Amino acid sequence: MVEIEAKLKVDSLEPITQKLKQIGAIFCGSVFQTDHYFDDTSGSLTKSDRAMRLRCETREAVVKNILAYKGPREAGEFKRRQEIQFGVDTTEQAIAFLAALGFEKSLIVRKRRKVWHIEGCEVALDDLADLGTFVEIEGASEEKIIGVQSRLGLAHLPHIKECYATLMRRHDETK
Fold first, then answer.
1. Can you tell me the distance from the alpha carbon of 14 to that of 20, in angstroms, rounded to the nearest whole number?
2. How many CB atoms lie within 10 A of CB 34?
3. Extended strands (E) in the chain
4. Is residue 8 within 8 Å of 135, Cβ to Cβ?
């Protein structure tokens, strides 16, 4: 599967929430996500713009674990990359599996996310303690994403192509 998304930095999520309600978006819920990123000892995944992520997602006291591989980003205005993901039973099993393959935890990213759906797109309102607030619009095509971005009044904002892991690494380097 290929993931296509626009990531936008915003000052506040409240006006976006109000706009989503106004245009008839469907609220799907709030989640807390802890993303554990893994790499080998030489950092080969990070160096080649790939990622191995274990996401622990808590929604209404239910925890879901998702292991994902993300391929290198493709050229273009939007963040587009191969994504392969599947559920795993427990965090501990996934970490043990990755360790057996030579991967170790390299970074943790925590975020609060509110998920909405509109016009075939998922709109995620993300709040990351160290990085601020972001809107991610994911859809089947760039045209659908552009349409939703425009309807939200965010057409003027530049797309951020880096993933949260890259932004967090950069933030940690400047401390």
1. 10
2. 15
3. 2-10, 26-39, 51-59, 62-70, 79-88, 104-118, 121-128, 132-138
4. yes
User: Which residues on adjacent β-strands are paired with residue 124?
Assistant: 115, 136
pLDDT tens digit string along 32-75?
999 999 999 999 999 999 999 999 999 988 999 999 999 998 98
Whether pTM exceeds 0.90? yes
Q: Which residues pair with 51 in a beta bridge?
A: 70
Maximum alpha-carbon separation in the chain: 49
Is the distance from CB of 48 to CB of 62 less than 8 angstroms?
no
CA distance linking residue 80 with residue 74, whole number of Å: 6
The conformation of residue 22, written as its DSSP 8-state character, comes to: H
Q: What is the DSSP letter of 141?
A: S
Collapsed DSSP state (helix, strand, coil) of residue 173: helix
What phi and psi, each to the nearest 5 degrees, are found at residue 157?
-85, 140
Tokens of 159: 């797309």
Chain CA centroid to CA 170, Å: 16
Q: How many CB atoms lie within 10 A of CB 43?
A: 10
Secondary structure percentages of the chain, helix, strand, coil, to 5:
25, 45, 30
> Torsions phi, psi of 141, nearest 5?
-150, 160
Q: Where are the beta strands (DSSP E) in 71-131?
A: 79-88, 104-118, 121-128
